[in-house]
Design a protein that fits this description.
Pfam families: EGF, VWA. By secondary structure, this protein is of the alpha/beta class. It is built from 21 helices and 28 strands. The protein has five domains: about 190 residues, von Willebrand factor, type A domain (Rossmann fold); about 35 residues, no CATH class; about 170 residues, Rossmann fold, CATH 3.40.50; about 180 residues, Rossmann fold (3-Layer(aba) Sandwich); about 35 residues, Laminin, CATH 2.10.25.10. The C terminus is likely disordered.
């Protein structure tokens, strides 16, 4: 954006003395190169030369040496550090005698850029004044820990605009350009402006410090006598000194300043006004990485936004932005949903009646008009009002709203100052489907409002709120189209902590949780297969994927016989057991079917379980951790692999309330794409090879569909007998091929 195209002669005067040192000299060169980006290098426009000074000045190259920007920058990079004393005054007198070698004399404005630490060993005051009297614009750019008083003396007035710090090359280049743009260079780019803001200068100074008083010997008036006394003792100390100042910088509007890319998308600016977004997988519904979603469920939807003082103006504006993004992402032209918006603090105001607007543009325009009200956070009163008045149909759209499911989305980040539990229960009894959205510390109160953790959506930070758009869309439409996975193919393993750390009473609760959870799945060979493992210091399989009872009563009875083991807990042992002896083809695991291991634990014995959990994930098996009580979240996260697969519950009594949420996430995994070769279905070191919609096992010394039978030795191979209508097809190379129609492909 910055580009100086005026007729201008620029001479860099680089301090190459030993006080600078080679490292800071390289930083000086880097700054000079950075500044050249803003110069339009051309014989008729900007000419640049360079001189290095220490004990004596040395012309590195005159101003007419290079006519292209790239050649100039390459030459600056090749300048060699010379070393010597800091003779700034001598260098300025050289400039007074020789002028700007290769320049245009007085026909073009002259700019002298001195880059130094300001610690001259001669007197530069007089030559500096003479240089400025010749109408040469002088910039003094500090390097290392500069002596700012000397730099102020060297630079042109006002010093706030002509003294800079090369340690931050981008900032210093901006400051220098900002000053030139106001005088010799062309005006700033459209939309850009020069602004003043407070800043500080830093320097390292040596100060004298009293260290204390110590005993010393002094003479006395008496001959041959001395006396003791306390003498002050001083030491020298380097101190970092900060000087307040003001800086002038050019500020241009960046199209990415407003963070337009949603859901973790990366904004890439294209000039002052254009940008494009690099979107993560699953997004890209529009140019700003909106989720590829649609709100196609037929519901009446009311957003209830907290605008109390507790949520702050910033939080209220964030909720408005979230609501606009959500509606833009999920509402199409023919979306059947009717949307309304209310805001509350001490009182409730219906800002948009449900169904008042049918297009996104009108909705977002009305949302923009919402004003922050402040006041108390009376969430209970707001819910009571919404229950009575939120969905009252006006004559314009009453017929459309009759008998539709009614959904209320509460957006709040402030604890309620009145009771919410009874009011929320009454609202749910009136067939209102409540969804709560708030930050993590609001989870408990939101769960009281919604009646279920499944309908509570929490975010960890402000940006994470916008990542919850897909989750909110699913919650809203689940009332119109209940989710479930009764018919999904799934290999499901429960690993239950049966150690002494859990205790017998809590173990019985965990076992009861497994019993009630199993009722949500269709347990049979064609849908969900289930295995159950208990673990303490060792692991015990109650029943495997290929031996589980198929009738409901028999399954519940088998779960009820899961033993309490006691002893210490080792989740590592349990997961290794699951990997090697449960989710294998030999034990009934089906290739092409998603596999989930649900670990129920109090968090004990999880420290060394991350490695086997990662081994399971690499084999295509999801590890879902349900932890109850006090446990180290970072340890649990390493085992779960992602916050999406970790549910942390405060007490065993609350476990029942999280059952719907846990089952829903398991069911979502059952619907995800699957790799037919993970875990490897081939036994005895057989290699699984993927085909289009199928796989086959390449066997070595073994034979059979999964390399399960040892091949007979002899001159002639053992004849293969393929039964009629078998899905298995023999192919050359001791390999067995399976088509998608086979029992072991993805269902």
């Amino acid at each position: 954006v910055m580009q100086c195209s005026a007729s201008l002669d620029v001479l860099f005067l680089l301090d190459g003395s030993y006080s600078i040192g080679k490292g800071n000299f390289e930083r000086s060169k880097y700054f000079a190169v950075k500044l050249c980006h803003a110069f339009d290098i051309h014989p008729d426009r900007v000419r640049v030369g360079m001189m290095q000074f220490s004990s004596t000045p040395h012309l590195e190259f005159p101003l007419d040496s290079y006519v292209t920007k790239e050649d100039l920058k390459e030459r600056i990079r090749s300048v060699v550090f010379r070393g010597g004393s800091t003779e700034t005054g001598r260098a300025l007198r050289y400039v007074l005698r020789k002028g700007f070698p290769g320049g245009r004399n007085s026909s073009a404005p002259q700019v002298l850029i001195i880059i130094s630490d300001g610690k001259s060993q001669d007197s530069p005051a007089v030559p500096a004044m003479q240089v400025k009297e010749r109408d040469i614009i002088v910039f003094a750019v500090g390097i290392k820990f500069p002596r700012w008083e000397e730099l102020d003396m060297l630079a042109s007035e006002p010093t706030e605009q002509h003294v800079l710090f090369a340690g931050d090359a981008n900032d210093a280049a901006n400051g220098l350009y900002s000053t030139l743009a106001a005088s010799v260079c062309s005006t700033t780019a459209p939309g850009c402006k020069v602004e003043s803001h407070p800043c500080e200068r830093r320097t390292l100074e040596t100060v004298k410090e009293l260290a204390g008083n110590y005993a010393c010997w002094k003479g006395s008036k008496q001959p041959n006598a001395v006396q003791t006394s306390l003498c002050p003792f001083y030491r020298w100390k380097k101190v970092l000194i900060k000087h307040p100042s003001r800086c002038f910088r050019t500020v241009c509007p960046d199209p990415c300043d407003s963070h337009p890319c949603q859901n973790g998308g990366t904004c890439v600016p294209e000039g002052l006004h254009k940008y494009h977004c690099l979107c993560p997988v699953g997004h890209g519904g529009d140019l700003r990485c909106a989720p590829k979603l649609s709100l196609e469920c037929n519901v009446d939807l009311l957003f209830l936004i907290d605008s109390s003082a507790g949520v702050t103006l910033e939080g209220f504006l964030r909720y408005k932005a979230f609501l606009k993004r959500f509606l833009q992402a999920v509402m199409g032209q023919d979306s059947p949903v009717n949307v309304g918006v209310a805001q509350y603090s001490n009182s409730v105001r219906m800002a948009i009646e449900v169904g008042q607007h049918k297009d996104v543009f009108s909705l977002t325009k009305s949302i923009d008009a919402l004003n922050f009200s402040g006041g108390g956070t009376l969430t209970g009163r707001a819910l009571q009002y919404i229950t009575q008045h939120g969905f009252r149909s006006s004559s314009a759209f009453a017929e459309e709203q009759d008998n539709l499911p009614r959904v209320v989305v509460l957006l709040t980040d402030s604890k309620s100052q009145d009771s919410v539990a009874e009011v929320a229960k009454h609202a749910r009894d009136q067939d209102l489907f409540l969804i709560g959205v708030g930050s993590s510390f609001m989870r408990a109160e939101l769960t009281k409002v919604t009646g279920s953790p499944k309908q509570t959506i929490v975010y960890s930070d402000p940006q994470d709120l916008f990542n919850r758009i897909p989750q909110l869309q699913r919650r809203i439409c689940s009332v119109d189209n209940p989710e479930g996975c009764q018919a999904q193919s799934l290999d499901l393993v429960f690993a239950v902590d049966a150690s002494a750390g859990v205790g017998l009473e809590n173990f019985l609760r965990l076992r009861g949780f497994v019993r009630s959870s199993s009722l949500h799945f269709s347990i049979n060979r064609d849908a969900t297969q289930m295995a159950l493992v208990a673990y303490g210091s060792r692991a015990h399989t109650a029943f495997a994927l290929d031996t589980h009872p198929t009738s409901g009563s028999a399954l519940l009875q088998a779960i009820g016989q899961l033993p309490f083991l006691g002893g210490s807990a080792s989740a590592r042992t349990a997961l290794l057991h699951v990997f090697g002896d449960v989710v294998t083809v030999q034990k009934g695991a089906r290739p092409g079917v998603n596999k989930v291991v649900v670990v129920l634990t109090n968090g004990g014995g999880m420290e060394d379980a991350a490695a086997p959990a990662q081994q399971l994930r690499r084999s295509g098996v999801l590890v879902f951790v349900v932890a109850i009580g006090d446990a180290q979240r970072d340890v649990l996260l390493r085992v779960a692999g992602s916050p999406d697969y970790l549910v942390h519950i405060s007490s065993y009594e609350d476990l029942q309330y999280y059952q719907d949420l846990i089952i829903e996430r398991i069911c979502e995994e059952a619907k995800s794409p699957v790799n037919l070769c993970k875990p490897n279905p081939c036994m005895n070191q057989g290699v699984c090879i993927l085909g289009p919609g199928s796989y086959w096992c390449e066997c070595h010394g073994w034979e059979g569909p999964h390399c399960e039978s040892r091949a007979l030795r002899g001159d002639s191979p053992r004849p293969q007998v393929v039964p009629p209508r078998s899905p298995a097809q023999w192919s050359s190379g001791d390999s067995w091929h399976y088509s998608r129609a086979s029992w072991h492909t993805k269902r």
